[in-house]
Amino acid sequence: xxxxxxxxxxxxxxxxxxxxxxxxxxxxxxxxxxxxxxxxxxxxxxxxxxxxxxxxxxxxxxxxxxxxxxxxxxxxxxxxxxxxxxxxxxxxxxxxxxxxxxxxxxxxxxxxxxxxx
Length: 117
What we know:
There is one protein chain. By secondary structure, this protein is mostly helical. The chain has one domain. The protein is 79% helix and 0% strand. The protein is built from five helices and no strands. Helix 2 runs parallel beside helix 4 and helix 3 (57-82) runs antiparallel to helix 4. The longest helix has 26 residues, at 57-82. The radius of gyration is 15 Å and the shape is elongated.
């Protein structure tokens, strides 16, 4: 149970931006920037969980590899948006956001459940 709870504060912080009086991201650029911040928070949460021995080295490495790919997708979204290709930018942003949600869900699972995935 402790393993599940260690990542929750960072994830709650991400989700709480709207309740803290921060304006929700509305423009495409703002939503991309928000996703970049989420990506960084997931990486930091994984590093903290590894340091606290709540996840295995392999899990942390997997998170880093996936978040590297997410960051490349977000960078491509930013380039596409800058070139005026909103459809491509939106698609890459949606893909990156969906992956981040899956990583967060994965890290919330107890260690035993992660081994089965």
